[in-house]
Amino acid sequence: MAKENKPEAWMSGPVEGIPPLLQPVAHALLQAREEVHTYLEGFPDKLLWERPAGVASVGFHLQHLKGVLDRLFTYAQRQQLTEEQLSYLYAEGKPAENQAYHVQDLLQAYDEQVDRALEQLKSIDESALTDFRGVGRKQLPSTVQGLLFHAAEHTMRHVGQLLVTAKILLHQEKG
């Protein structure tokens, strides 16, 4: 889990194609992806669903990182969640019986979601950032900007939790 000495995403210059006001969102998503890969390098599949001290598992965090980005970016597009998205939400953190989960598969799914989010950011008109967006069935009030920035900060929050859980599990594994 050694971290390279390279600048963080926000110090690497603008992300091509992303509007200036959305650069912080793009930088946070890129930083999160980089850190998740760094923290989980060599992480064993057998520890994916372990919950030390009752905290959320690494598997949950990987599923949730993908799912929450998908959901928040869906709301930012003024769309409601599909049945498939709702099913994914309810299944987060619950490994299906008779299904093998691999760290690399969950990482790939997360990477693909980050790529979709970055592509979506490229198409957002900055003049629409303060436009109302209803969240969920109750249409709780937010804005395009609010949803996108929440997606970024929520992602980083779970990356931090994932790091701690992974470190604890690896420490316990070493005995």
Précis, in short:
With 175 residues, this protein is mainly alpha-helical. It has helices at 23-39, 58-76, 83-91, 103-122, 144-174, and strands at residues 132-135, 140-143.
3D structure, described in words:
With 175 residues, this protein is mainly alpha-helical. It has a single domain (19-174), classed as dinb family like domain (Four Helix Bundle (Hemerythrin (Met), subunit A)), CATH 1.20.120. The protein contains five helices and two strands; from the N terminus they run ααααββα. The protein has helices at 23-39, 58-76, 83-91, 103-122, 144-174; strands at residues 132-135, 140-143. A two-stranded antiparallel sheet has the order 1-2. Helix 1 runs parallel beside helix 5. This is DinB-like domain-containing protein. Pfam families: DinB_2 (PF12867). Residues 29-162 form the DinB-like domain. It comes from Pontibacter chinhatensis.
Widest sheet: strand ordering: 1-2
Instruction: State the CATH superfamily name.
Output: dinb family like domain
- CA-atom Rg in angstroms: 17 Å
Integer count of domains: 1
Low-confidence stretches: none
Biggest sheet layout: 2 strands, antiparallel
Number of contiguous helices: 5
Mean pLDDT: 93
Describe the secondary-structure layout:
Layout: H1 23-39, H2 58-76, H3 83-91, H4 103-122, E1 132-135, E2 140-143, H5 144-174
Antiparallel strand pairs: 1-2
Helix pairs in contact: 1-4, 1-5, 2-4, 2-5
